[in-house]
Amino acid sequence: MIKKYYPSIDETIFEHQFSNQLKLAIIPKPGFAKTEVNLAVRFGSLDQKILIKNQKEPLEYPQGIAHFIEHLLFESDESNPTQEFARIGASVNAYTTYDRTNYYFSTTNGAIEGIRLLVDMVFSPKFTKKSVTKEAKIICQEISMYDDDYEQKIYIDFLRKMYENHPITHDIAGTVDSVTNTSFDTIKKAYHTFYHPSNMVMVIVGDVDSEKLIAFIGSLLDQYRISGNEIEKRILVEDKIVTNADFQIIRQEVAVPMMMMGLRLKLGAETSAFDQTLNDVKLSFLLSGVFGKGAKPYHQLMKKRLINDSFDFFESFESSYGHVIVFTETKYVEETRLALTETFEKMVKNVPDKQQFYLAKRKIIGEYLSIFNNISHLANSFLDYYIKGINMIEFYESLETLSYQDILNIRNSINLETIMTLVYIPKDDK
Amino acid sequence: MMKIDFLPTKKFKNTLITLRLIAPYEADTINYRSILPQVLASSTDKYRNKSALSRHLDGLYGTQMSVFTAKVGLESAIHFQLLFPSDRFLPNQESVSEKVVDLLKQILFYPKTNQGIFTKRAVEEEIRLLKEAIEAEYNDKSEYAFQQFRKIMFENERYSFRSKGIYERLNEITPESLWQYYLNVLKNDTLHLSVVGDFNHTHLERLLSQTFNGVFKENPHHWIDDETKIISQVRRIQEFNDLKQAKLFIGYRTNVRFDSEKYLSMMVLNILLGDSDQAKLFRIIREEHHLCYSIGSTYDSNKGIIIVSMGIEPENENKAVDLAVEVIQSLKKGIISDDELAFSKAFQIKRIRQRDDSILSLSASDFYYRKVYGTTYDTHKLVEMIDSVSKEDIIACAESLILDTIYVLTKKDNQ
Question: Which residue on chain B is closest to A9 by alpha carbon?
Answer without folding.
Answer: B89
